[in-house]
Amino acid sequence: MKRLVFAVVTTLMLAFSFEGCRHDASQDRYTGVDSIPMLIMQIKQCARLYTTEYKIHKIVTYDDELRLRGSIFDHVFDLPLPLGDRKVVIPMDATLKGYIDFEGFSSKNVWRQGSHITIVLPDPKVMLTSSKVDQKHIKEYVSLTRAHFSDKELASYEAEGREAIIASIPQLGIIESAREGAARLLIPLVEQMGFEEENIRVIFREDFDPGNLKELFDQNSIERHEQ
Prior knowledge:
Helix content is 27%, strand content 41%. The chain is of the alpha+beta class.
């Protein structure tokens, strides 16, 4: 029997991390028809906007009990065998980061109607930046008649722990935090182009689904940790 227990600590990064962004917030305000191409150029220079970081502490427990099962005269029995237990507790720590990737940002992401502007952001992504087992605090209980957990078994339980963390992403709120953080940073950038704050909208595509983990999770990050 496996039990996965979560203890989650979340930290919203107050100082946003923007890879590749070279925008100078002190520059003069841009106005006129050329403001949109300038805005697109400024945003495209910013490769990834990291806005959210979640620290997760997870406890994976595995309870392996030998049992005797059968039936006698149509009477079904299921009995634990004495000295047949194996148990292990594996503490894990992981870090998830939410970000927006602007590599494919283009004029298709910007709508302008007079003094109003709408920016459609790329879908937020989530990556697993670290995953580590607390080796010092792994606890095992193994009966005399049973073999100890092998390294292969422990590695498989660790992998299950990572997968459970990833599966919980839609419930953690990290997608929404990445979205809100991107809007907070981009609005001042758009204001530099000559737009008033009340005329700026930052949105995601209409069919954006924060529960679609397959599209939103950076699979390369979990592959790096499995190597």
